[in-house]
Amino acid sequence: MKQQMLAESAAEFFNIDIDKLKSPCRKDSLTWPRNICIYLANECGTPKSIIGNFWNRDRTIVYNSVKRVDEMLTTSNKRKTQFNNFKEFLKIQIKKQEVGI
């Protein structure tokens, strides 16, 4: 899965400007969507260094982002629902891209 598509999908789903999503801002409204993207890229087997380069972060930040999402998925039903809704949205975006819509 391409990182750019993840970022664009997250920006659309969470109604955030993509530049803000990739910015160093630490607001929860930006870090949660960013961490989800990092988590999903990691799940797809993208090396942490490549993920970090895309998001302008080092690989240890990537590791911590994955850890935070794991924690949130087990402790927050709201976050888990939001995560699952985003994954469904992402599947639709992927199908649209495959069809050329």
**Count of helical regions:** 6
Percentage of residues in helical conformation: over 70%
> How would you state the average pLDDT, rounded?
95
Termini separation comes to 18 Å
Please count the beta strands (DSSP E, at least 2 residues each).
0
Shape: globular
Strand content: under 5%
Biggest sheet character: none
Q: Helix- and strand-based class?
A: mainly alpha
Radius of gyration: 13 Å
- Helix and strand element order: HHHHHH
Low-pLDDT parts are none
Q: What are the key terms here?
A:
101 residues, mainly alpha
What can you tell me about this protein's structure?
There is one protein chain. The protein has 101 residues and is mainly α. It is built from 6 helices and no strands. The two termini are 18 Å apart.
Secondary-structure topology with pairs:
Blueprint: H1 3-13, H2 18-21, H3 28-43, H4 48-55, H5 59-75, H6 77-99
Helix pairs in contact: 1-3, 1-6, 3-4, 3-5, 4-5, 5-6
Brief write-up:
The protein is mainly alpha-helical and 101 residues long. It contains 6 helices and no strands.
